[in-house]
Amino acid sequence: MNVTESKAESSCAMTEMVWKQEYLGEKIAFAMTATILNILSFPVTIVMNVLVIMAVKTRPRLQSNYNILLACLAGTDLLVGAASQPSYIVGQIYVIKGISLSEYCRYHKLTNLLVLCPIFASVLHLTLISIERFVAMKYTFRYITIVTGLRLKIAVVSSWVFAFCPVILRSLSEKLEFISSVVAVMVLFLNILLILFCHLSVYFVTRRHEKQIKSEQVSPQAAADFAKEKKALKTTRIIIMALLVCLFPLFMYVFLWFAFSKSSSYTGNVIILSHPVFIWLSSLNSLCNPIIYCYRNKMFRKACKELLRMKCTNFNEE
Predict the structure, then answer these.
(1) Residue 85, helix vs strand vs coil
(2) pLDDT tens digits, residue range 140-159?
(3) What confidence tens digit (pLDDT) does each residue in 178-201 have?
(4) Which CA distances in Å does 82 have to 156, 162, 242?
(5) Helix boundaries (H) for the chain
(6) Which of 42, 93, 138, 149 is the residue whose CA sits 20 to 30 A from 14?
């Protein structure tokens, strides 16, 4: 084994111990399970997220700053369905056909970046959405001057650039791999703190506004606007919770991998081999998000149904 292969395998989910012939049945079983689950889910993920993006693009009533950011988040989920999951399916087919460990580890390194970049981009977009909700709830009268179209565009483009920075740095030099990983973890941690700060701050602001509405004479329009903003805030929280729920199994896998990677027990090796299924579970978030948008927003639901009906009609006519 050369130096390049050893480096690839050192960062690989699999090891020589679990790649042995005696674990061939388990390895193929997990690979087939992950392949089938991805094949079933990725077309739906693509269709649902395309519908969300098209709904915002073609329906002026849906083109609020909040919905535009949701459409941008749908763009990150679309990348998962269109690139991450198909590439992972190809990788698992290679495993079923009998790919070598060194080849698998090289391919795993590539697909890992395709999986992690959209997740990183999703977290950055959720930070933008949380900040937008924070400004909408706390600085209601200054919202129009603070959250402008140009600033939204700059923020979204910056999020995509930051999300792909680790890939860009690693492609320039292998020496930058550790630095890019550290920077990515720091940025991710700062974004999580910022999301928590925004939602905690907005929680207290919301409580104060609710007390004012109950104790003071507030116009019906002002009360309706507040209820609308509060509903959008709740949707954001559901999206964040869905992301955490989908990523939790992956975090558990990483913990178990560290615990059992040096072990030679059957249980530990089977847990390591289950890697493809845990990756699929994390990709489920990209399918959950558009369902949440449609469930929480009647206009989104109506627009998506109209677009889907229109596409089906055009297809039948052809």
Answers:
(1) helix
(2) 888 889 999 899 999 999 99
(3) 777 777 788 888 988 999 999 898
(4) 20, 20, 20
(5) 3-10, 24-58, 65-79, 85-97, 101-138, 143-146, 149-172, 177-215, 220-260, 266-273, 275-283, 285-296, 298-317
(6) 42
